[in-house]
Design goal:
Layout: E1 2-4, E2 11-13, E3 27-28, E4 45-46, H1 52-64
Parallel strand pairs: 3-4
Antiparallel strand pairs: 1-2
């Protein structure tokens, strides 16, 4: 499953839908919005919002794409 934002430049992809041979996750973001009572493990860093490292990587990727939104097959 993924979400395509009309004016955004990224896709939200749920890890459980990806092949098992991808690299392990290195961070969790937006954990402040988790449902009440959910306790997250300390196996990777849990950020309450967006981390600065993530924002820099995202901006770098967007610059490399020429600030364009790539076409996704099957999405109008």
């Amino acid at each position: 499953m993924f979400l395509d934002f009309t004016k955004g430049h990224w896709l939200t992809i749920y890890r459980g839908r990806l092949p098992a041979d991808i690299p392990p996750a290195t961070m969790r973001m937006m954990t402040a919005e988790r449902p009440e009572g959910v306790i997250l493990p300390d196996d990777i860093t849990n950020y309450p919002g967006h981390s600065g490292k993530f924002i820099l990587k995202l901006l770098g990727a967007w610059i490399a794409m020429g600030f364009k939104r790539p076409a996704v097959d099957g999405v109008p």
